Amino acid sequence: MIEVKVPATSANMGSGYDSIGIALDLYNVIQMEESDHIDISDVAGASIPTDESNLIYQCAKKVYDICGKPLKGLKIVEQCDIPQTRGLGSSSACTVAGILGANALLGNPLDRENIIDLAASIEGHPDNSTPAILGGFCVALLEYGKVWSVRVPMNGQVDFITFIPDFELSTEKARAALPQTIHHHDAVFNLARAALLAGSLTTGKLENLGVAMGDCLHQPYRFDLIPDGREVMHAAKAMGALGAFISGAGPSIIAVVASHDKTYLSRAQMYCEQNFPHWKPIRLVCDEVGAVVRTVS
Ligand code: HSE
């Protein structure tokens, strides 16, 4: 039996729309072995697709097809702690788990670069799939089926206080809300901030983050799809975050907080309980390891 553990990811980080992402310490853990039929279950008994429409199965099957290997079936056991449709990379984690699990079952015919390219091509969001594989803070873009990426070392201790609402927002809907064209000024606004963000996280110049996470390409449009999102973001900053952003396509909101601010989480929890009880803040940190594959008995 192969076990694959894949971290959650937060794409965009405000200014880095479709290009920047970070891995976080919340995981989907998937066990997989070959079988003569499809047998898919969830350890918590959650309702999940148990046939060939299952995303993990589909991604595993894709690897078998690419490698020209027949596949009768797979036994897959899922433990998915990354909440779905909340902007935390749950589908990327399943995509990566399917690819890495099948690759391990086949004796690792695909190398890391093949895996990064395949995950982004299937998933469509290299800013999620790449940090899910590599861990850490990544800049990534997909061009003609190939991912160009770098994992950028981070300097400075920060926590990612993640405000998760009790409602979902599909990426499809969140992308459909964006305008077809943007003004030159808006492109420059984000370009400068995304570059500043990468440089500031690398050098530890954390006082830049508030400005560097600014965005006018996607968040202003997506807030209309996130009830109370503007208020939560405003409060997240007002409570002392270095910067804040919509995680991926939303609806979760992340406040980047200096790790030495030990009371931020309890302040955030109290604020939500009193004002927006359907939002729950949790503390996450950067996952530095990325996806891990191991053999279990
Ligand atoms: N960069 C993508 C978006 C991430 O914001 O739509 C989707 O998970």
What Rg, in angstroms, do the CA atoms define?
19 Å
Overall average residue pLDDT = 97
The amount of beta strand, in percent, is 25-35%
- The assigned CATH architecture of the largest domain is 2-Layer Sandwich
Q: What is the N-to-C order of secondary-structure elements (H for helix, E for strand)?
A: EEEHEHHHEEEHHHHHEEHEE
Summarize this structure as a short list of keywords or feature phrases.
297 residues, Alpha-Beta Plaits, 2 domains, 35% helix, binds L-homoserine
Structure description:
The chain is α+β, with helices and mostly antiparallel strands and 297 residues long. It has 2 domains: 2-152 and 287-295, Ribosomal Protein S5, domain 2 (2-Layer Sandwich); 158-284, 2-Layer Sandwich (Alpha-Beta Plaits). Helices cover 35% and strands 27% of the residues. The chain has 10 helices and 11 strands. It has helices at residues 55-66, 90-105, 112-123, 126-134, 171-176, 184-203, 209-212, 219-222, 229-238, 264-275, and strands at 2-11, 20-35, 39-42, 73-80, 137-143, 146-152, 158-165, 243-246, 253-258, 279-284, 292-295. The strands form 2 sheets. Strands 1, 2, 3, 4, 5, 6 and 11 form a 7-stranded mixed sheet that branches. It has a 4-stranded antiparallel sheet with strand order 8-9-7-10. Helix 1 (55-66) packs across helix 2 (90-105) and helix 3 (112-123) packs antiparallel against helix 4 (126-134). The N and C termini lie close together (6 Å). The mean pLDDT is 97. It binds L-homoserine. L-homoserine is lined by residues 11-12, 17-18, 125, 127-128, 171, 174-175, 218, 248-249.
